């Protein structure tokens, strides 16, 4: 059985595994899997709360489409594009959080990074082909998840 709460060391290891797999993906395919920390964070979220991971996917999709609409009226590139995409993700995630906080109070207990990750994924979907981003993010997240869950099931990683 996989625990709902992980120690800080296990969470750091999950992020580190995601970084390693992200770097390997980027160096071998020249595709960014939604940012370097994203796959590790998603894998950790899948271990602890699948609903939050599903919510992240929805917010990332909404952010992507909101950015495409925004690009029709505003010239966005470089740092301005990055800031606009992450800001859109934070606004959408905050709106969703406020709407769901009464119904699901434990969904947003300590998910600070969860406000940034959808923006990172959306930013990569805008910069490179959407399918390539989705495939690379999914593959790297799956690899990280498998290693992380294997370590948890074997008892090699500490849990709270």
Summarize the model shown.
The protein has helices at residues 8-29, 38-48, 50-71, 78-100, 117-127, 130-153.
Blueprint of the fold:
Elements: H1 8-29, H2 38-48, H3 50-71, H4 78-100, H5 117-127, H6 130-153
Helix pairs in contact: 1-2, 1-6, 2-3, 2-6, 3-4, 3-5, 4-5, 5-6
Organism: Streptomyces sviceus (strain ATCC 29083 / DSM 924 / JCM 4929 / NBRC 13980 / NCIMB 11184 / NRRL 5439 / UC 5370)
Keywords: Membrane, Transmembrane, Transmembrane helix
InterPro entries: Capsule_biosynth_CapC (IPR008338)
Describe this structure in words.
With 160 residues, this protein is mainly alpha-helical. The protein has one domain. Helix content is 71%, strand content 0%. The longest helix is centred in the C-terminal third of the chain and has 24 residues. The radius of gyration is 16 Å and the shape is globular.
Protein structure class: mainly alpha
| Terminal CA distance | 13 Å
Classify the oligomer: single chain
Instruction: Indicate how many domains the architecture comprises.
Output: 1
**Helix fraction by DSSP (H/I, runs of at least 4):** over 70%
For the sheet with most strands, the description reads:
none
Question: What string, H for helix and E for strand, traces the elements in order?
Answer: HHHHHH
Organism: Streptomyces sviceus (strain ATCC 29083 / DSM 924 / JCM 4929 / NBRC 13980 / NCIMB 11184 / NRRL 5439 / UC 5370)
Keywords: Membrane, Transmembrane, Transmembrane helix
Transmembrane segments: 12-29, 41-65, 77-100, 106-126, 133-157
InterPro entries: Capsule_biosynth_CapC
């Amino acid at each position: 059985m996989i625990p709902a709460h992980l120690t800080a060391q296990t969470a750091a290891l999950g992020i580190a595994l995601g970084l390693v797999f992200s770097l390997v993906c980027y160096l071998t395919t020249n595709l960014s899997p939604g940012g370097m920390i994203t796959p590790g964070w998603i894998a950790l979220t899948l271990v602890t709360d699948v609903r939050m991971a599903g919510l992240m996917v929805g917010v990332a999709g909404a952010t992507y489409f909101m950015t495409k609409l925004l690009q029709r009226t505003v010239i966005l590139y470089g740092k301005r594009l990055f800031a606009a995409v992450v800001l859109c993700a934070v606004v959408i995630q905050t709106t969703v959080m406020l709407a769901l906080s009464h119904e699901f109070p434990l969904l947003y207990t300590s998910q600070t990074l969860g406000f940034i990750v959808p923006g990172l994924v959306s930013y990569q979907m805008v910069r490179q082909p959407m399918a390539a981003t989705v495939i690379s993010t999914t593959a790297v997240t799956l690899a990280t998840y498998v290693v992380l869950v294997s370590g948890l099931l074997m008892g090699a990683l500490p849990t709270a």
